[in-house]
Amino acid sequence: MTPGTHTAGPAGTGGAGRTALETAEAVRSGRLKAADVLEENLAAIRAREPELHAFNLVLEDRARAEAAAVDEAVVAGRDPGRLAGVTVALKDNLCTRGVETTCSSRILEGWLPPYDATVVTRLRQEGAVVVGKTNLDEFAMGSSTENSAFGPTRNPHDPTRVPGGSSGGSAAAVAAGFAGLALGSDTGGSIRQPAALCGVVGLKPTYGLVSRYGLVAFASSLDQIGPFAGSVADAALLLEVIAGHDPMDSTSLDAPAPSLLEGLGQGVEGLRVGIVTELMDGVEPSAAAAVEAAAAVLSAAGAKVDRVSVPAAVYGLSAYYLIAPAEASSNLARYDGVRYGMRAEGPGAGGPGSGDVSAMFAATRAAGFGDEVKRRIMLGTYALSAGYYDAYYGQAQRVRTLIIGDFDAAYRSFDVLLSPTTPGPAFEFDAKTSDPLAMYLSDVCTIPTNLAGHPAVTVPWWPEGSGLPLGVQVLAPALGEAVMLRAAAAIEAGAPPAPVAP
Amino acid sequence: MSPAQPRPSISRDDVAHVAHLARLALTAEEIERFTAQLAAVLGHAADVAALDLAGVEPTAHPLPLINVLREDEVRPCLDRDEVLAQAPAAEDGRFRVPRILGEAP
């Protein structure tokens, strides 16, 4: 990385211009050492991590041991796996046994989970090298990574701006070449929004496609784990690895992992593509223009593009900010200073004789949670409380039914839908921190997908002459990942190139 | 069923009550700030609260939820000592907490 350049290295490459697919292929064939791949990433981390703060924890020693094990397997003639030697960064709300998992919250600081998330197990089985745990908005609540208890992550393309959130560390890690791939979680856009703002591919799978065992719960009817990658094909590869039924997650779909890479290059001839009019309203002109330009790319490749209305999508933001906090207020009740994490000391909160357990709960939660988490717990508790349940939570659930119905209607006429991923490019620090509603509006284009349980992917789009990327979002019906990725690959192939460092 | 119209705003007393329900010991300053911020978000949600959705079934979950059962057989679980090692206080193989009942006589 050259100091003074405003652009990051090639996304997801460790600076060497290799995709994850190419890295795995080269490591598997013995042409490239996993250890050397890791050292490239560690060098990039040394150069820019002090400035960007993508990680809560870099696992240098463990990663070296994992890379050495991959290289030994290759030498010994054993199959090192489909992600052999590919470095992966994990959002720090994914449990790693014996390795600190904080959710970027004081309340979990120092916690060593007693088990691995299923996605982590699957990565290891396929020869991936876990390079570190990435920063996030506390408990994944936020759109800028400014809500981390450990300080914000900076956007690799312009460190005066946010990387998006909540998975801002994972997005920045891939964009800066700190890791070949990354995992995040997406409850209302927390993969797609930071991916768009950092110029990488980010994908939220169909609800239930990827096991959430070991993902710290935020809003259980919405949360999904998904990939960040430097290319659509790399995202497809990582999703193939992590998808598939898991008996440890009762919401895991009982279906085999889909085959996604195979059909990626089949093109979009005859594909019916609908631009969602409601998600084009109110976004910045550059974001709308990117979608129009991507649609033109698809059209030129043989797709049939038209406009489509998803009327109830306009209520998505309101419904989400009732449903997600309601579920969060329940999920986060478990942080009470009893089983893990911190317990507040001090008057009324200490040991025997100094207060009761209820005072300890309240003191622990007041000291351990940051502002945004408190705000969402309060909002959710209010929305669920006697007298308001039906007016807020109940209404939001009915709106959810409308949104699903409107998407179903759209998918009777279209194979995939298009929209901006975000209303605009990365914003500056503190631009929205004092106004929660303004921050929530960052998620207006991504939220409807979560409410419906559908998949969506963001493809980087660099407006000409701009140093900041945007994202074009491709949406598909439940389990429509294959066709969605096919459209995404076609957009990627026709997108303007990312600016290169001078 | 027609939903009750939500109150146009949320009071400091409402916020203090909700903070108690949520077991959050908030400062007076936080209660003041959250009152204004929650009012803004709930104001935005008024569009949803005001919709006439009589006859629309609520959706709690994107998948049809079914009970997932497994065979009732013994299998390994998390290691007790490893779990308890992460607790703020443990004693005799259990989580230790402050008094949960009233003052002893």
Task: Explain what the structure shows.
The complex is a heterodimer of chains A (502) and B (105). Chain A contains 15 helices and 11 strands. Chain A has 502 residues and is of the alpha/beta class. Among the domains of chain A are: 20-261, Amidase signature (AS) enzymes (Alpha-Beta Complex), CATH 3.90.1300; 316-392, no CATH class. In chain A, strands 1-3-2-4-6-5-10-11-9-7-8 form an 11-stranded mixed sheet, with helices on both faces. The longest helix of chain A is centred in the last third of the chain and has 24 residues, at 390-413. Chain A starts with 19 loop residues before the first helix and ends in an 8-residue tail after the last helix. The relative contact order of chain A is 0.14. The model of chain A is unreliable at 1-10 and 348-353 (pLDDT under 50). Chain B has 105 residues and is mainly α. Chain B has 4 helices and 2 strands. The longest helix of chain B is centred in the middle third of the chain and has 17 residues, at 28-44. Mean pLDDT of chain B is 87; it is low at 1-7. Classes of the chains: A alpha/beta (502), B mainly alpha (105). At the A-B interface, helix 9, helix 10, helix 11, helix 12 and helix 13 of A face helix 1, helix 2 and helix 3 of B.
Looking at this protein, list some descriptive labels.
heterodimer, A: 502 residues, alpha/beta, Amidase signature (AS) enzymes, eleven-stranded mixed sheet, 15 helices, 37% helix, disordered N terminus, B: 105 residues, mainly alpha, Histone, subunit A, two-stranded antiparallel ribbon, 2 strands, 4% strand
The two chains with the largest interface, and their residue counts, are: A-B, 76 and 57 residues
Number of helices of chain B: 4
Percent helix range of chain A:
25-40%
Q: What's the main sheet of chain B like?
A: 2 strands, antiparallel
Which architecture of the domain at 20-261 in chain A would the CATH scheme give at its second level?
Alpha-Beta Complex
CATH domain class name of the domain at 20-261 in chain A? Alpha Beta
Secondary-structure element pattern of chain B, one letter each: HHHHEE
